[in-house]
Write the structure tokens for this entry.
Amino acid sequence: MSNPYVLEKDLREVVALAENLEPYVRGRELYGNAGGAFGSLPSLTVGAVLLRLRRLHALHGQLNDSQRASLERAQQHYQQTKKTWRVHWQEKALRETNSRLDAMRAFFQECANSARACANNYLPEVLRRTIVQELLIELEAEKVFDAQLDEKRKHTDGKLRGLLRPCPFIWAEVLQPVYPSETFWWLYQRPPQP
């Protein structure tokens, strides 16, 4: 199991990320900085925002009025940026999806070299693949399709499926309803421990 889920942390992060999304989307860098002190905020990407928005909307009932208002502002920042800078948003989302899938190659190499390293280093790949899925869902909703990206995703998932075995939900139990096993199957599987 990964670290416990802290709803307030996700909310704090999505607010900071969404507030900085417009200049990020217009800029050149793929992994941006939302201005937090070193290590206090995740890298600013479209996928990082989408990951947190899904969780927080799914857990909406656990938010107080002030938190709901903060989430709504973050959602509005995201939607406005996507609408105003559509071409830039689309380009960033596609680049990020490709980059995250490409980064998984190092994990597959680790797995080829060591079953222990494969099992021990799986959790970052779970996050990476989940963010990819958030991006793919959003791109599909916006009717953006890239055949090469789809092939890369299928290839990556084929390799991943060959490494994994069923297990209980990997992340904090409170998140399980947010991530159905049909769509987010890698959260219910992991490489076997040697």
